[in-house]
Amino acid sequence: MSSTSHADLEDIKTFCKRANVKFLSSQCIIKKSEIGGLGVFAEENIKEGTVLLRVPKSSVFSASNSSIANLLLENEIDGMLALNLAFIYETTIFRSKSHWYHYLKSIQIENDKDELYLPPSYWPDSSKSPLSGTALDTLFDALRPEDEIRESYDMANELAHKWKNEFGLQIPNLVFPNDEEVFDEEKFLRFVATAYAISSRVFEIDNYHESGLVVIADLFNHHVDSPDVRFESIFDVCESCGEIGPCGHVIPDDDPDVNERLDDELKTPSQSTEISQALIEELERETALELENSSGEKKDDLVPDECVDITLMKPVNAGSEIFNSYGDLSNALLLARYGFCIASNVHDVVHLAPDLLRFWKKNKRKFDERFRFWADMGYELFTDWFDAKRAEETESDEEEGYNSRESALELSETLSDSEEANNSGGENSWHSNMFLISNGDTTPSLRALINLLTLNTVEWKKLTKSAAQEEKINRFLPILERKFNNEAKKLMITLLAPKQALYVSNLTKVSNPDVRTLLESEATIIENCLKALA
Ligand SMILES: C[S@@+](CC[C@H](N)C(=O)[O-])C[C@H]1O[C@@H](n2cnc3c(N)ncnc32)[C@H](O)[C@@H]1O
């Protein structure tokens, strides 16, 4: 997806010079990467802990640093919509007059054939249909265009016209129509592509800037399990002005000096504004002094706490590409957010909830009672018992083990908002936990459901009888963790075989390498599970 052209590198460097960005260019080089676009490489062996890049927060492109910061603030627009809108104005209206232009123009929203980079949800049906049934579709609902993005677009369109009418600010015509009321699909898709390009490069800066684009930091490619660098920023700053220490907006409750002085001020209300200003300046001087004293080093012109850094977490050898991690993301999420996939991604899963629901529908007579029990109380009883048991185990076990509730939480963090709402404790909350992990193992709660569905009649009666009494049910629940018996294996095969056949058939029709990678990865997980069942 969005990759940087080598031709834009000089402009990026020009921006860095003007913006006081420190890049360790004596030891690193930015050049073409085999995996696409540009990447950052070590020119010599570099030690762990080295700061490769230091960017002052004032040189991070965020909504609050942008040319339309005040307009966004006045109209209470924040988050990704604010960043997208700010990016659109800088790159299409202010252009070369903008302080940010040399950097931002390197962020491409279309390829050299003028085709927009779009997320899978905006691909034509023929391109996205091979992905149906994958985790991208059923766990993350990322094949369906989100209502939210259309709502954001409508809001942004309304604002662009309002600003035009109120101050004559030019409308970004590439993205919004001249007539506010006329929807233009092509322009809307440019807005979607802008949001996608930004989401593939954004960093969480702090609670003042929120999300932002960080020059050069966004040139590090992703490594799935062995990144070299980490992004560092002090997140906890004043929400109103971005100050790290005491400021005019927040004064710590527990600072007796400040509180005493504040009390004195409040006793003389007529002078309060003047004294507050003096107080703020004094506190600023104190903070600067503390910073100098605490490091004892010779200062360069950047105050580290006011910067974001890219720091090496481990040594790298000359010649190797230096990788970041965009998070523990499955291919489904990498494709949805960044437009690429990785072979043998250890975070991939095969989601089986839709397959189980289809099975339930088809086999109501035999399995309805058991599925209902699971949905009404079985899942909750099992996860509560399982999580309590895990909590009692040793710390090292906990680190290695697979915790059913934890995994659900980790996943739900990455689910879209609508999916999260579906899964927040309702009768369907079990759906998001029914999957195979990358080595083909089941999650504990998928294993429990399969075992529950295949308990013999005596076991099933015992389970339902004891369900009302915590002590009794807790003695019975370990049976749901047992190894699959033949009945359970048969059921797993019934669920997996059609899914596998679908993936194999889709693979014959697909040429997009990322879609192939995702399908191959999920097909391999199913294969590993089937092998283990044999
Ligand atoms: C933050 S940028 C990284 C720099 C990018 N290569 C460039 O030229 O601008 C993220 C984009 O880089 C590409 N990318 C990053 N890591 C990758 C990987 N491991 N495999 C394939 N493409 C990757 C994808 O196109 C992704 O959308």
Features of the shown structure:
534 residues, alpha+beta, set domain protein methyltransferase, domain 1, 2 domains, four-stranded antiparallel sheet, three-stranded antiparallel sheet, 21 helices, 12 strands, 8% strand, binds S-adenosylmethionine, SET_dom, LAFE_0B11694g1_1, protein-lysine N-methyltransferase activity, SETD3_SETD6_MTase
Protein architecture, described:
This protein has 21 helices and twelve strands. The chain has 534 residues and is α+β, with helices and mostly antiparallel strands. The chain folds into two domains: 6-239 and 304-338, set domain protein methyltransferase, domain 1, CATH 3.90.1410; 350-533, no CATH class. A hairpin with a 5-residue loop joins strand 2 (28-32) and strand 3. Helix 12 (353-362) packs antiparallel against helix 13 (364-392) and helix 13 packs antiparallel against helix 17. Mean pLDDT is 88; it is low at 262-299 and 401-424. The structure holds S-adenosylmethionine. S-adenosylmethionine binds at residues 1-4, 33, 35-39, 200-201, 218-219, 221-222, 338-340, 342. InterPro entries: SET_dom, SET_dom_sf, SETD3_SETD6_MTase.
